[in-house]
Structure formats: structure tokens, C-alpha cells
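pipeline: protein-struct stage 2 | run 1193 | Class I SAM-dependent methyltransferase
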Amino acid sequence: MTGQRDRWAELTGGQSGQDYAERFAQLAESGHDIHGEAAFCTALLNPAARVLDAGCGTGRIAIRLAELGHRCTGVDVDPSMLAVARRDAPTQDWLFGDLASLDTLGLGQGFDMALAAGNVIPLLAPGTEPMVIRHLAAALRPGGLLVTGMGLDAAHLPLPEPTVTLTEFDHWCTQAGLTLRQRYATWSGDPYYQGCGYAVSVHCRPAT
């Protein structure tokens, strides 16, 4: 743990897991596709890939990826979120931990993908973002992918204003040895354009 509260903890107090799960359950019942992130990731992965879901929340994405045949490890700092994940998928790997201290969790390397969806990066504790990116990059195998989704304006964030720009984010990724491969405006793969308010980015660790 870093000793510094992340923005998610400040917003929720670490007590929002069940409410969060119920919101997505209601969306699914009303006919919404709640598995867009998992479908996006699967299209980039070989079968039975190893995936690190960083900031996994209630496990919605990791559970779906496991159903699709991938091997997933979820990490989150919100105990209420992890309680839901462990209840819904007790045989999967769920770890309590701060992403800024990811190197202390004993995960090792060799992941085919590290995923940080759901505004994980903008909600990190201020100042820890470059360190988190370095840890996620270090967890990847050569040729592995970092996939992130983040809001870029208040309309796409649970915050009054954005905390991270794409220029800053790409710089942190470059510092961590990652290269931008693709960028989209949605998890459905719509083309990214300047000012669209949301970015799904795919960065790659060099193969050698």
C-alpha cells in the first residue's frame, strides 16, 4: 500500500461493490451488452491467454474472459468489490492490493495482457500513475499488451474534471518501454478522434 488514498476510495469509501454489481446486472437485464471490454480483449489474445485485470472491481470482465477460456488474475484495492468477485467466481484468482505496490504481490511476469478498464488510470492516487504503468509493463511478457480505457472529460468520468491527459499517459507508457499500437474511442472499436472524450488504448511491450 502506498499510504495515499486513490481517487476511487475518496469517491466511494470502499463500500460500493454490491451497488456497482447491481447496476451492471440491471443493465444486462435491460438488454445492454455488458461484455464489450472482454470481447475487445479476446480479439487481441491467443486462446488460453494469461490476463492481469488491474483494478478488476467486481470481476465482471475477468469472469467473462475466464468463461472465454483465458486465465485471469484480478487485483483491486477495494475490499467491497473483491467480495463480490470472490462470491461470483470463487475459483478464480483475486488479490487485494494497491496497483502502486503491484511488484510486492508476487505475480511475476509473463502475462499476455494487462488490462486497466473502467477509468482505473484516472482514479489512481495522484502521482502514482507512472509507477503503476511501470509495474503493469513489467508484468507483461515480451510482446504482451497493456489495454486501458479512460475518460478524458468530466462527461466520461466520475470526477468533476479529468486527471490525466493522453499526452501524459503516452509519455508514462514510453518511459515504461511500451509503444502505442492502436487507439479507439470505444470498446466497440469506433475510431478515436481528438476531443471524443474517451480513449481505449493498446500499448505493446517490445517482443525482444
